[in-house]
Write a structure and sequence with these properties.
CATH architecture: Alpha-Beta Barrel
Low-confidence stretches: none
Number of helices: 12
CATH class: Alpha Beta
Structural class: alpha/beta
CATH topology: TIM Barrel
Oligomer: single chain
Helix content: 40-55%
Shape: globular
Radius of gyration: 18 Å
Number of strands: 10
Distance between the termini: 31 Å
Number of domains: 1
Largest sheet: 6 strands, parallel
Strand order of the largest sheet: 2-3-4-5-8-9
């Protein structure tokens, strides 16, 4: 196959935000540089949140300053509110990824704002987008499949945000399975509904493997025509405000599945396996990505 699937590496942000171990800025930068050397061209590098609430994300400005713009690479800053937006603009990130929660229950805990308040803030942020360039803007819809506090999420809750983001003129919309409860059939239904609500706007999918359905959901997304997926090296990740949170789908697992099927990703799988082992060791844990534990196939004979 000649079809390319873009994998957005989220390890330096989503992968670290729920870890007990705190990395130094130099360690985070080494992590980012290793990932880029292994093929990452679009990556969540920082989150503009209050470091008192999420100490793992401290140093966003310093990290961004050490990563000046390079053609062909996009370093993404996560934004939860207008203060975060201003910090992201000042830090000159290549992309601002605005988070909007699909439920009030999660929104209040994650961002101290209701879903409607977050929608209004998103509209205000996009309206302030610099006219002379500035970052590209994506919107990630958190708990788009299910909420730990409110249970099942109505499809209209999600499509209302998708429609509003599309009308605001964002560059991309992501549907996020924040607590890893989705199934492939629900994924397909959400994709179809999002396409109807935002015709022409690229969609990205973000899955967690909490209930062992993450790779199946990624497969369903690709089969439904999605070309952009998030993943985290080593299977790191999890939201600090989601009970029993576990990691994102492992980038190595996703790369392995796609490239075995003939899709291109642009990643060096062997290098990603080594990075998964390295960063997991740095954090004092074992990698959860299956391919990092088992190795690629065919196995190399020493």
């Amino acid at each position: 196959m000649s079809r390319h699937i873009e994998i957005v590496e989220v390890g330096p942000r989503d992968g670290l935000q729920n870890e007990k171990s705190l990395l130094e800025i130099d360690q985070k930068l080494e992590f980012i540089h290793r990932l880029e050397a292994a093929g990452a061209r679009r990556m969540e590098t920082v989150s503009f949140v209050n470091p008192k609430r999420v100490p793992q994300m401290a140093g966003a400005e310093e990290i961004s300053a050490a990563l000046p713009h390079q053609d062909g690479r996009s370093r993404i800053g996560l934004v939860l509110n207008e203060r975060g937006w201003d910090r992201c603009i000042e830090a000159r990130c290549d992309e601002a990824n605005i988070v909007v929660c699909a439920t009030d229950g999660f929104g209040i805990r994650n961002q101290a704002a209701s879903s409607q308040e977050q929608i209004a803030a998103m509209q205000a942020m996009v309206a302030k987008r610099p006219a002379n360039g500035g970052p590209s803007v994506s919107v990630s819809i958190s708990v788009a499949f299910g909420c730990p506090f409110e249970g099942e999420v109505a499809q209209e809750n999600v499509t209302r945000i998708v429609r509003t983001a599309h009308e605001a003129g964002v560059d991309e919309i992501a549907l996020c399975d924040t607590i890893g409860m989705a199934d492939p059939w629900l994924v397909r239904a959400r994709i179809e509904a999002a396409r109807e609500a935002a015709p022409g706007t690229p969609l990205r999918m973000h899955f967690h493997d909490t209930r062992n359905t993450g790779i199946a959901n990624a497969y369903a997304s690709v089969e439904a025509g999605i070309d952009i997926l998030d993943a985290s090296v080593g299977g790191l990740g999890g939201c600090p405000f989601a009970p029993n949170a576990t990691g994102n789908i492992g980038a190595e697992d996703l790369i392995y599945m796609l490239e075995r099927a003939g899709y291109s990703t642009g990643y060096d799988l062997d290098a990603m396996i080594e990075i998964g082992r390295w960063i997991s060791g740095l954090l004092g844990k074992a990698p959860t990505a299956s391919v990092t534990r088992a190795g690629p196939f065919p196995m190399k004979v020493a």
